[in-house]
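Give me the fold.
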Amino acid sequence: EREPLVDVISTNNEVKVVAELPGVDKSDIKLYATEKTLSISVDTPQRKYFKEVDLPANVNPKSAKSAYKNGVLEVTLTKTKEEKKPKGEPIKIE
């Protein structure tokens, strides 16, 4: 298994992951996204790639859009709006 070269670009409201996967068919690429990570894997007799990318912000995995052209995979994920919530339990003032 080899690790593809990966760039992570973060903008105001999205995270873009660009990975180089030369010599791979689009149908052989498997992508899995969580709120904090993106996993890229290819498992064919000729090529094996695997990379788990830690994302710089929380994203909505259902918002993922991807494109694969000339050996370059681009995955775009929308950042989730982080609500500022205090940690812990509220304390009642008497």
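The first strand starts at residue 6 and ends at 10.
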